[in-house]
Structure formats: structure tokens, C-alpha cells
Amino acid sequence: MTDPKVPAADHTLRILSLLAGSRGPMAASMIATKLELPRSTVYHLLATLQEHGFVMHLPEEKRYGLGIAAVELSSAYERQEPLGRLGRPLVAQLVDRLGESCHLAVPHGRDVLYVIEERAQGSRPLVTDVDVRLPMQLTASGRAILAALPKAQVRALFPDLESFVHRHDDPDGIDRYSKLRGVLDATRTRGFALERGSVTAGLSSIGVPVLDHRGWPVAAIAVTFAEERVDPERFAPIARDVRSTAEALSSRIYGKSRV
What are the recorded GO MF terms, alphabetically (predicted)? Predict the structure, then answer.
């Protein structure tokens, strides 16, 4: 006799895989159609996934997207040794070329978690050390990741004012979704994320996402420098160098380059 839990587990994993491969949240009816499952089964499984945080329901859009628990599973993989082994030599080479400290961070809920930190000789101490977590909206790495996500997914991550960590010394003052949206729009237009003094006064960072084979941001590479040493005219050339490193890492993890 077939264990009834086995097909339920199979259906659940297929739903998560479908949502993970989608560019944005999906309607339950579309999920049922694509997976050729009864709608009643899909609604039941979505409710269970939502209860455990693996799925978020967007009531205004009548769609479902990945929840924070699913994002944290992805982040758990990215924190493992393969990413460090693949990324560390690339980040070290970037430090040698730029002469500035560089790091790699992965999404962890509404935060970014730093997994690689390569310091330039004589650089100022940074708070972005390995295993440190910082709010996504404050950092260049986090903004690079958020700007590469579908807007509906960003909205699901920051549904209300309580989702934002408030910092009185943050010059950008990103304490609500409308301000975050403006920063991310500017990031997409510019082609790279820029943070100036939001984490540490006097220090700026430029970040670019690392994309997987679906174009989904799984990490970000950023460079941090003393603001008085770098003219804003150099930001774009620095970003191109950071992007080439991010694209090399994307290729190494079977991802694809930005176009």
C-alpha cells in the first residue's frame, strides 16, 4: 500500500520548486494548472506552507510567493563551503585590483549575511565581518539583491513599517516601502547599488548581485572604501570591476551573466 504522505511531500516540493523558478508570485489556479494538480490539493498545501513561513500570500494580488523560511533555506545553502571555495579567490583578486576591502553576502530573511570578507592592507575596520548580519536596505549588498528581485517579492519581504529597522543616523532614512522603492529604482537605473554612510559614517560601498541560472540573486559582491579617497566619477568604473567578479562567480555556480 502506498504511503499517502509520499505524494503529498512530492506535491509540496513541486510547488516550492515552481515558485522558486518563477520570476514572481503566482496564482493558486496557475500553480494547479502548471503542475496538473487538483485546485483543492494546491490550496490545502499552500495553506500549510504559509503556516510554516515557506509561502507568503499576497491578498491584493491573489497570488503566492516564497516566504522568508524558504529564503532562509536558500541562504543556508549559500552559507556552505562551496560558495566560499568558489568565491574567495575571486573576491581576493578583486581586492588586489581595487586596493579596497571587498566582501560577499547572501540574503537571510530581511538581512544579508556576510560569508566572505577580504580586507585591503591598511583599510579601516569594518562591521561587515564573516557571519555578521545587517538589514538589507542599509547595505549595498542588500540593495543589489533587492533590486534584482521582482517588485512583488520585495513588497512581500517588507509588507509594513515594522519590517524596517530604523537608524537615526542613516542618511538615506529608508524606513518605509516608498523610500525603499525609490532607492531600488535608482539602483536599477544606475546599474549598481550604492550605499554612502548608512552602515558606517565616512565609508561607502558599491554592490552588484550574483545571479543563478534563472537570473535570481543568490548573493552580492561589494567593495567598501573611505568616501574621501574615491571621487564619484570612479563609481561606475569600480562597479564594472565588481560586476565582472560577480559574473565570474555566477558562471562558477552554473549561473548566468547580467545582460
Answer: DNA binding; DNA-binding transcription factor activity
**Domain 5-66 in this protein, CATH class:** mainly alpha
Q: What CA–CA distances, in Å, run from 237 to 191, 240, 247? A: 11, 5, 15
Reported as a pLDDT band with limits 50, 70 and 90, residue 109 is confident
DSSP code, position 256: -
pLDDT grade for 216, boundaries at 50, 70 and 90: confident
What's the rounded Cα separation, in Å, for the pair 94 and 162? 37
Identify each DSSP E strand in 136-216 by its residue range: 193-196, 203-211
- Residue where the block lists cell 506552507: 49
What's this model's pTM, rounded to 2 decimal places? 0.68
CATH architecture of the domain 72-252 equals 2-Layer Sandwich (3.30)
Which parts of 58-176 fold into alpha helices (H)?
68-78, 81-98, 140-148, 151-157
* 118, 101 Cβ separation under 8 angstroms: yes
List pLDDT tens digits, range 175-202: 889 999 999 999 999 999 999 988 888 8
CA–CA gap between residue 84 and residue 88 (Å, rounded): 6
Range(s) for CATH 3.30.450.40 in the chain?
72-252
Cβ neighbours, 10 Å, residue 185: 12
User: Which of 77, 138, 152 shows the shortest CA–CA distance to 110?
Assistant: 138
| Averaged pLDDT of the chain | 86
Are the CB atoms for 45 and 11 separated by under 8 Å? Answer: yes
